[in-house]
Structure formats: structure tokens, C-alpha cells
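Quick one, C-alpha cells below:
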């Protein structure tokens, strides 16, 4: 019987703390935080959230210690990967929660090299509505300009792609939020504050060989700056907020004329990808081999969203190192050629491309992940040992729904074929493998 008053007391105390923090922010003036060169990088936990900055015995608060309207944490440890644009990409997400009782208008989010203080990326008024979206809303964002308003207790997610030269990869990233607190009186107070410092992984991207047969392939729904359902697919699973397909890519076979299908788009055999061999991109041990789901029967329309267990349909997962797994998804029914425990080498056939699971038209879903199951897991970067870059598709008019268009012709901009090594194809690239 004494629990009810106690809970009420705690609630009141919490409300008082929130109001107190709001008052402090309004009274302490305009700008908080300090130059990057004066800060100490916070350690990053396995989940990506920064640990508190340590202060030695006898020392005062560090110069960057301040009250902030926003709490911020990363969903992963930013990890570098070299893309076909010649830039090293750090693709990750930053969760922003308004911890005070008043709205906060976020004008811009700045990402800097913690050590040098150099700004690496500014998400400003022209792009902030595309790059920062409310959790649970459409992650594609809008074309609006100006600040975004983060209401009390709201959580928003910043979709970040820091692209730097290969010789300028930072060891730590510092995030600064610039904006204003908006009280009922309308007398706003500017609060520009350092809200997160995250270390950058020093691991090199995993090198893999081709997972498909020799030929030309369209790389759809890939990383890093474009909106895609892989890159922007936030998934809360078992209480964890993850982006399990951040670096995933869908493989579509392309013929010499740049087509992906010919004939009747309602039939899987019309697609050049259908029943193409899927081969092991590394050596390793099979830890999952599922062959129990039918192909989609809704072509060319997307299928109904299946149960979570059927998301990637018939698939194989290969452990290539402790905590490192390659997933090959959407295989044709009856085509899986391996079983759990099998040892595989580069080029060994695993199965055939189908359209099982949450798949629109036949393709291979390929990704490197941290767990043997596709949910929950984190997605980490990888690179091909070698391939030829042929150009890029100029417009995402079909997404994965290739069969909904009048023809299978891709809007393709060719370049002089360019031999590449140890790079990750970027979204919309067309490459030659094998």
C-alpha cells in the first residue's frame, strides 16, 4: 500500500528535474561546449553509446561539460569502408532524444574530427529534413528546409554518411547540435552543444570475392548516402534498435543491353537473375541453411509482408570469423546445396537465386553481419577483392519492383570500364564480376 505514494513522489521529482534542467538551460545563456581541440574523446561501448568523459582526481570539470537539451547515442561503431567514388565512408546513425520539457529547434548537426577539430560534415537547413527523421516516421524524410522541431521526450534519428579521403580517416567523431530552446513566451535561447563523441573502428573492411556467377550485375539498395530500405531500415528487435541491413546490397543480373528482364514480368523466369548460381564469397562454416519457403506468387507486385522468420526466405549463413557472418538470401526453393556444419571455400555453390521471402523480383540479398541470425544483428562493411565498374543507374524509378515498369531497361550511364580492388560498390553501381 505504500508503493503508490512512492511512485507519485518519484514522478513529481522527475518532472521537477526536467523543469529544473529547462530553467538552467534558459538561464545559462547562449552557447555551451568548447572547441574540439579542448575535448577528450569519450570511449564508445559495444552498442555505440559514448561513456562519460573521465576526470582525473583533483581536476575540475572538463571544458566541454554542460547541460544539453538532447541526449545522443550511436546505433553502431562507425566503421570505414572505401567506396567506388574514391572516398572512405563512415555510415552510421545517431539517436537524438529531447530530455527537457520544451521543444528544441535543431538548426544543424555538425560532425568533426575530434582530434583536429576539422568539420567533416554539416547537416544544415537545406538537408536536415532528409537526414534527420523522427523515429517511427518515414525515414526518407521530406524536402522541407529550415530547422526541425524535436518535441519533449521525442527521439529522432540522424542518418549520417561521413565521406573523407583515404588518408584523412578520423579516429574519433564529435557531434555538435546547433539550435534553440523554444519556451511558451517565444523568447528562444540558443543552445549549441557537443552532444556525442564516438570512436571510429580501426578494423579494416572484410575482403570477399564475388557471391554470384560471372557477368554484369546491378547493385541496388546499397550504401551509403542515398535513401534505401537497407541503409535506412531501422528495426527494433528484442528491445534493441539496430540497422541490420546498413551495408546490404541486392544483386540483379543485367544483359549486354542493360536490361534486367524480358518477356512476361509476372513470371520469375523472365528475370535474368532467376536461378543464377549463388557461390561462397569466402571460406567458412555453414551455420544456417534454410530451404522451406516458396517463391513469391505476386509478381510483379511486391508480396505481402511475411512473418519475421521468413524475411530473407531460403538462405544460407556462413561464419567466416568469430562474430562475422555472410548472409545469402532469397534462394529458389529446393536449390540450397549445403547444410549446417559444412565447410565451404570460395566459389562453392550454395544455391540458386529465387524470390522467396520478402522479395519482389528475383535477386540475391547479400550482407556481412555480426550475428548468425538476420534479426537481431548489426550490419558491417565489406569490399570486393576485384571487380570492374561499368557505370551507374541514374534514377531509382523501380527500387526492387523492376517488373512494374513497361520494360526491363535500366536508365544506365556508362563509363570507361574501370578495374577496382578492395572497394565496396555503392548504391546504383553496375559492375562486372568474374
Amino acid at each position: 500500500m505504500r508503493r503508490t505514494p512512492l511512485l507519485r513522489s518519484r514522478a513529481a521529482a522527475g518532472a521537477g528535474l526536467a523543469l529544473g534542467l529547462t530553467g538552467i538551460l534558459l538561464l545559462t545563456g547562449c552557447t555551451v561546449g568548447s572547441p574540439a581541440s579542448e575535448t577528450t574523446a569519450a570511449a564508445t561501448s559495444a552498442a555505440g553509446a559514448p561513456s562519460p568523459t573521465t576526470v582525473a582526481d583533483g581536476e575540475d570539470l572538463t571544458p566541454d561539460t554542460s547541460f544539453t537539451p538532447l541526449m545522443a547515442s550511436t546505433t553502431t561503431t562507425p566503421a570505414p569502408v572505401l567506396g567506388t567514388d574514391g572516398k572512405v565512408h563512415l555510415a552510421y546513425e545517431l539517436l537524438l532524444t529531447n530530455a527537457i520539457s520544451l521543444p528544441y529547434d535543431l538548426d544543424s548537426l555538425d560532425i568533426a574530427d575530434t582530434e583536429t577539430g576539422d568539420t567533416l560534415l554539416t547537416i544544415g537547413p537545406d538537408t536536415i529534413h532528409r537526414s534527420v527523421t523522427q523515429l517511427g516516421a518515414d525515414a526518407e524524410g521530406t524536402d522541407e528546409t529550415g530547422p526541425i522541431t524535436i518535441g519533449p521526450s521525442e527521439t529522432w534519428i540522424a542518418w549520417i554518411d561521413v565521406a573523407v579521403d583515404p588518408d584523412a580517416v578520423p579516429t574519433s567523431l564529435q557531434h555538435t547540435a546547433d539550435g534553440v530552446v523554444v519556451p511558451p513566451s517565444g523568447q528562444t535561447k540558443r543552445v549549441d552543444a557537443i552532444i556525442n563523441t564516438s570512436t571510429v573502428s580501426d578494423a579494416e573492411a572484410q575482403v570477399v570475392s564475388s557471391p554470384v556467377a560471372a557477368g554484369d550485375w546491378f547493385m541496388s539498395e546499397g550504401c551509403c548516402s542515398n535513401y534505401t530500405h537497407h541503409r535506412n531500415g531501422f528495426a527494433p528487435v528484442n528491445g534493441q534498435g539496430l540497422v541490420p541491413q546498413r551495408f546490404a546490397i541486392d544483386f540483379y543480373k543485367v544483359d549486354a543491353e542493360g536490361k534486367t528482364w524480358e518477356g512476361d514480368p509476372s513470371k520469375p523466369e523472365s528475370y535474368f537473375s532467376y536461378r543464377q548460381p549463388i557461390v561462397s564469397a569466402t571460406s567458412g562454416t555453414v551455420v544456417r541453411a534454410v530451404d522451406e519457403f516458396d517463391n513469391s506468387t505476386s509478381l510483379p507486385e511486391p508480396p505481402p509482408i511475411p512473418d519475421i522468420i521468413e524475411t530473407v526466405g531460403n538462405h544460407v549463413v556462413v561464419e567466416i570469423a568469430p562474430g562475422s557472418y555472410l548472409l545469402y538470401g532469397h534462394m529458389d526453393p529446393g536449390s540450397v546445396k549445403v547444410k549446417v556444419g559444412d565447410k565451404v571455400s570460395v566459389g562453392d555453390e550454395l544455391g540458386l537465386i529465387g524470390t522467396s521471402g520478402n522479395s519482389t523480383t528475383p535477386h540475391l540479398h547479400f550482407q556481412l553481419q555480426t550475428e548468425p541470425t538476420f534479426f537481431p544483428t548489426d550490419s558491417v562493411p565489406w569490399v570486393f577483392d576485384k571487380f570492374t565498374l561499368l557505370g551507374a543507374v541514374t534514377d531509382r524509378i523501380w527500387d526492387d519492383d523492376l517488373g512494374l515498369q513497361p520494360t526491363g531497361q535500366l536508365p544506365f550511364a556508362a563509363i570507361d570500364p574501370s578495374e577496382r580492388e578492395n572497394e565496396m560498390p555503392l548504391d546504383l553501381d553496375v559492375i562486372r564480376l568474374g
